[in-house]
Amino acid sequence: MLKLKLNDRSLFGNDAGEDEAQEILNSYFIDNDDFDDFYDDEHRLCVVNARKGMGKSTLLSKLDYDLASKEEYGRPIVVRVTGNSLLGLGDFNGKDPAYLENYWKQIICKEINIHIGKTINFAFTSDDMSMVEISELEGMKSKNLIGGLISRIKGKLPVLGSETQGFKPENLERLLNNYLDDNHDKKVWLLVDDIDAKYIDSEDFQHRISSFFSAIRSLCFDVKNLNIRATVRSDVWTNLRHVEDLDKWDQYIVNIVWTKRQMREMLAKKILSYVQRKHSDSPEAKYKFDRDYNKLFKLIFISPINWAGKEAPVFDAINAFSNHRPRSMGQLCRMAANQAHRSRCKVSLRQFNEILTKFGQNRRDDLIKEHQHQFPELENLIDTFRAGQKEYTFSELEMVLDSKFIKGREVSDIPGQDHERFLNKIDQFDDLGWL
């Protein structure tokens, strides 16, 4: 049987899907019927909503790959950007929702203008050239986006002077005309990843992020030939739902939820992709992920294992430990495989047990970073249930909270002191599978 290099960090793919080579990502990506609207170019607006580590950025990368490679999309103009990059293009100190919504529209058009400039090898370094005024945005309603933006840029050419960066204004106008001729009828796909990066649950951040969603919804349907895809964490989206304008957003939201079978296929495809890249001439490279997944797992893992008092496939343990999060599954398998490599053996339940403490600490830290803005005392709450029971009755739960979480502190020092609100928080974290 083929022997794999268990400490090869590419064995289980890249934990950050956006950093993976697109051809490799495409080789192990698992499609889901729920993603159909996200891929459909007739749906102008779509936002992926999921917890950290569920594959939001990976889905955006897969769409980016398809837009560039599939003829059905017609080779559109693709502008991919992170939320931090967009925020870096302007000053978002205002709090008025109407101002922020219009400002986001200006920033988005500025990003597209910068993309056009890069394409024709001209840097629009001046805000006079790249920043679109509100009145100009109003003038582009119901018009082709690229045509409107280029017409606006051409109108600003006189401010450049006789020559700028080696371009005469008339030559730059010719380049813009050529770009417009080549792209006038093409769609623009704006892909925005992690708009909620470094989110803090403050009034400023709530206004800033909620106004982004209001802006892209308005912009999508105000101009022609613009499709927008974005990602947002489910914990942040929940905090924004009180904003009135977002009550119309359910139709544009795609949720990522992975079944056990999909998780199993994802892991099998990652291993098969690795085998086909590194050992393309081997018989194992001809395996089928959906038919030969047990054979693929046995290249790395000892299976079956003794799990919950009975014989079970090794994937039952992997799935339970990773809590249906692809990133966690990759990290878990990589840590166990590294441990097995040091012992010169395949991965058994022993290796999983040996790395669980470190893996659990990493997951705990991830959980705190993900949800601390919702509940500042989350770290103390988790520690309250450390080494505790698997299940509690309501009265037992109250006793544990009183003795370990509340005891010795003033009630005013405890977030969520309203009893009902506090227990609702407990329910939320229980739903995540961490209590």
Describe this structure in words.
This protein has 435 residues and is α/β, with parallel strands linked by helices. It has three domains: 225 residues, no CATH class; 112 residues, no CATH class; 54 residues, no CATH class. Helices cover 51% and strands 8% of the residues. It contains 19 helices and seven strands. The protein has a five-stranded parallel beta sheet with strand order 2-3-4-1-5, sandwiched between helices. A two-stranded antiparallel ribbon has the order 6-7. Strand 3, helix 10 and strand 4 form a beta-alpha-beta unit. The chain is globular and about 75 Å long. It comes from Photobacterium arenosum. This is ATPase.
Major beta sheet, strand line-up: 2-3-4-1-5
The assigned structural class equals alpha/beta
User: Could you state the order of secondary-structure elements as H and E?
Assistant: HHEHEHHHHHHEHEHEHHEEHHHHHH
Rg estimate, integer Å: 26 Å
Beta content comes to 5-15%
Number of helix segments?
19
Q: Any low-confidence stretches, pLDDT <50, length ≥5? A: 417-421, 429-435
Rounded average pLDDT: 86
Whole-number tally of structural domains: 3
**Beta strand count:** 7
Please give the alpha-carbon distance between the first and last residues.
Answer: 41 Å
- Describe the global form: globular
| Largest sheet features | 5 strands, parallel
Percent of residues in helices comes to 40-55%
InterPro entries: Sll1717-like
Protein name: ATPase
Organism: Photobacterium arenosum
